[in-house]
Structure formats: structure tokens, C-alpha cells
Design brief:
Layout lengths: L4 E7 L4 E7 L5 E7 L15 E2 L1 H19 L6 E8 L5 E3 L9 E2 L7 H11 L1 H4 L10 H11 L1 H5 L3 E3 L1 H10 L3 E2 L1 H6 L3 E2 L4 E2 L1 H7 L8 E2 L7 E2 L2 H7 L6 E7 H8 L7 E6 L3 E7 L11 E4 L10 E7 L3 H11 L4 H8 L10 E5 L13 E5 L8 H24 L7 E5 L7 H11 L3 E4 L3 H8 L7 H12 E5 L6 H19 L1
Parallel strand pairs: 1-5, 5-14, 9-12, 15-21, 21-22
Antiparallel strand pairs: 1-2, 2-3, 4-7, 6-8, 10-11, 13-14, 15-16, 16-18, 17-18, 19-20, 22-23
Length: 495
Amino acid sequence: MHTKYYIGFDLGSSSVKVALVDAASGENILSLHEPKNEMSILSEQIDWAEQDPNDWWKFVCKGTKRILQESKIDSSNIEAVGISYQMHGLVVVDANGEPLRNSIIWCDSRAVDIGKQAFKDLTKERCASLLNSPANFTASKLKWVKDNEPDLYQKIHKFMLPGDFIALKLTGTISTTNNGLSEGIFWDYESDSVASWLLDYFEFSQDLVPDVVENFTPQAYISKQAAVETGLPEGIPITYRAGDQPNNALSLNVFNSGEVAATGGTSGVIYAVTDNKNSNEASRINHFAHVNYSAENPTIGKLLCINGAGIMYRWLRNQSSAESYETMNRKASKIAIGSEGLVILPFGNGAERMLDNTNVGTQFCNINLNQHSKAHLYRAALEGIAFSFVYGMEILKNDNATIKVIRAGNDNLFRSEIFAKTLATLIGYEIEIYNTTGAIGAARAAGLTDKDFERFGKNITKNDHVMTFKPIENKTPYLKAYQNWKTELEKQIKN
């Protein structure tokens, strides 16, 4: 009996990751990325960011052929495909499915003012059924193209998200998901359909919206052309696609209300799953249809981003010429909780949405030149980042999110015991650490056609669970340190 496999793609802005997993066990067989150096981002003007969608496809093809060669498996034993992708980007294609321009990707902010004006015109009350402000998302970016490139706009056959374009290249079929439409802020949660009133406001034709397909079902099948270009078997289905943050949650077995996925990279992300559609935070928190969303089971992902997170610790490492993060963590562990009064606000990576788009910068508060050392700075930085996560979770809890368990990848911040224990203790819940990636999650999700999320989760625990951080019983020093930090933050916000 031949071993069966699933393949997953994770389209980021730096590379395309590819993973091959055992269909029965979910075990990761091989993971890699293309290109070996980062993909380029074109920025013709300040705050613009574009990529050529055909470059993504080129690296999908190259990565697929490479993983087949290096794993030495028979490609005919691959049974299904899953796709994860960078969220909020805009791809526009003509009737032949060819891109009409570069993709305007997630970090491009040219449409900020369009989104702000739409929120003002439509009103907060009307946008409540979107669960978001239009902001700088895909719908606003499409409006920018309409206003600034009218001749090109007239040629658009369909708009789509980046993952939809990869699915198109793999299958020859244009489609999207309700998850994707919610990421682009096109989805009305009250009617559970495309927000036709938003299309009318922007003067978009309904014909520009792709057909909507469901996750965990055959969405389309690998075409003969794509089989030649990638080496995948012709006729196997794509059964799953999702934006990178919802997919990260899936990769960490986060499907149910009360479960939270956390990411601690350059920036931090808290993604809390809820079945409550009510929100008073359309600007500070983003809301997306989760991967298992349906009209009967309206599972929403409440996403809160912290721009100033791991970048703070990386900056401190570079400026102090520390050998490694492990060295910094070891020195920090010798300092008492609260860093003997030293406070660091880590918000030096642009305006923070959770602080109402205030840019407070990074602040070093209460430094005592006779007392504090580099070790104090290391601890205060880790505590400051952890406190910013706690602050964000308080916002989520005040906006109808329940937090029962936090699951995180084994990335830089969560490798630090100080960071993880501080967070677990102040939140009062365990933090489970898993060693997985978005591409592995997407590959495994390709096999979730039975929608047996409990079995899926057990396999993740079996294959990927690394450790669990438990809250410390004596919270008092942590609470005192957090209150000290919060006092300094509120001073800066008031300024």
C-alpha cells in the first residue's frame, strides 16, 4: 500500500513556503521555501508596496518541483492541495486570467484615506455588519485603482486575493472564499453574503466578484497545464485556502470560541476565535470569517496586531552587540520581576492600531544610571512586549472575546521563558507551544474534508506540541510590574 500525501503552499511577501505531509498521520515529510533569498517588493512611491503575481507562480512551480525531487516521493501519491497566503492584497485579472498590474500587497498604505472616507460616509453603524472599517484593505485598494487607473480598471474581469490567484494558476478556475472576501472587507455578516451595498458605494460591478467556494471541499482541480509546470498530478483537488493569520490559527488547532493563536515575531498578533458577532472595535480590532466559518457556525477570528513586538528585542540585541537571544534571556533571568522599576514601551514600529493609531514610539522610563544594567534592559524589553500582549488581550476581552487557552508557534519571543510566563501569569491561562509552520498547516488542512476538527487537533498535539507554560500562582509581583508599565503607557497616550 502506497503512502499518501498532501501538499501545502504558504505565499508570504518574502517567499513561497512548500510543505509535504503524510496524509494519514499529518507528519511533516519535508518543508522548503523559494526563492532562497527574499522576493523583492517594488515601492515606486513612499508607502507603496507591490509584487508581480506571476513571480509568486514561478516560485510555486520551482518549490513544488524541488520538494518532489528532494523528498523522492512519487507525485502520483499526492491527493490534495492546501493554500495559505498573505492577507489583504489585491490582484486584478483580465478575461484570460492574466494580471493587469502588479498586486497591491498587504503592507501598501496608499488606500488609507479612501478607507477612512468610506468609514465616515457609510457610518460606524452601517459598517457594523462588516465587523470592520473598510480601512486599508482590498476593497479600498480596488477603489484606488478605479480612481487612479480608470483605463486599466475597465479591463478588469475579476478581482481576487493573492491565494485566489495561486488557485487560478493551479486550476484555470477563478474563485474565492467567504474567508477571503471577509479579509478584503467585502463580506456582510448580517446577510451572510457579499456586501452589495459596499459595492454600490464604491461603484463596483457585482460581476467583478469571483464565484464563492467552500473550504474543506473540492474547490477546483489541478489543470493539465499546471501539472506540467509544477509536477503535481492532474485532477487532484484544492480543498482549502485561507489568509496567513487564520491559517496560523488552524495550524495551532485553534477552531473554537475561547481558543487564541498568538504570534511573536517582528510584530505580534493575537487571533481570538469567537462565535459572537457583536463588536464595538471596528477600528482597533479586525474581524474575519475563520476557516471553519459557516452560516450555521459563524466562527469569527478577532485579530489584534501589535507592531512593536519582537523588533524591540532585535533592536536591543543589535545595539548591545549581544551574542544571541539565548544570552540575553539568560542575563534577563537573573533580574527580579519588574526589572527594578525600569519600564520599556516597545511601540517603535509605527502607529499602533490598538492604541487608536497613536505613534508613541519606544520609551525607556525610570532608568537609574547607578542601578540598571544591560540585563535590566533585556528583562524590561521582554516584560514590556509581554505587557503589550496583555493590554491587547484586555481590549479583546472587553470586546466580547473569551480567552481559555493560548497556543503559539515556537518562534523567537515564545522561546523566552520570561516572556511566556509573564504573559501566562497575567492572563491566567496556559500557553501551549507548538513547532509548526503555515505551509504544514495548509498541507494538513487539505485533508480536512471530513471536517473532523477534533481528530485534526489531536494529530497536531501528537506531532507538534513542544511545551506548556503554566501561570505562576503568586501573581502579585507581575501585577505590580504590569500596573507600573500601564501607568507609563497612559502618560504617553495622554501626551
